[in-house]
Request: fold
Amino acid sequence: MFNGKKVVVVMPAYNAEKTLLKTYNEVIAQPFVDRVIVVDDASGDNTYEIARKLDRVTAYRKDRNSGYGGNQKMCYKIALEEGADIVIMVHPDYQYTPMLIPAMASMIGNGLYHCVLGSRILGGYALQGGMPLYKYVCNRFLTFAENLLIRQKLSEYHTGYRAFSKELLTTLNFDSNSDDFIFDNEMLVQIVWTGAVIAEVSCPTKYFEEASSICFSRSLRYGIGCLWVSLRYFLASHNLGHWKLLDRIPRNSLKKEW
Reply:
């Protein structure tokens, strides 16, 4: 716990048997972590069998693959059901270091922010960490366009390392979001809609064979989807459209006066 607030780490897992244990060991070694939730998205390996034997882990296995977004939805619902006050998502592929968990938990637990992102871009080490050049270029282009449309100054929108307050998760209508990879961007747009400030911390990352990734064609569809999500926010913020994406989310309800 941090400041009396329960900290739960969630891991949306798919074919992660080679890296799950290494990620878990580093997660559980961090202070403040009360519980770890692993949701196996119908993997074809032993991800679930490994997870269910680990201490302080609640493990679930889906009978059918629901997609990256669908997996996250289940992760957050279970975390809230288990009484989480701070929820931190860490991919079990060991691409992001769990050593930032205490910092991210404290930023939320002290009431400073409702959302903290682990940025691969801050610090300038993405390429040194092995990020493919085409992914880096696409990341920078998409982030530039999204910042213009959403009127933010984030270093990136595409990290899979995120922390949320309970208040934020219960405000968002994330269950209506996509079950695919675009889920992450839809969540960020919803968070901006609430007026909550999004914080970032510099996060070193590793790219290797076992680290999860998507092919070029899916990356292209993802990029187009990100721009469409941002455009919908832009139109809605100027009263030029009504989108299900932002339904039932009170605008500026979590805005702070600094």
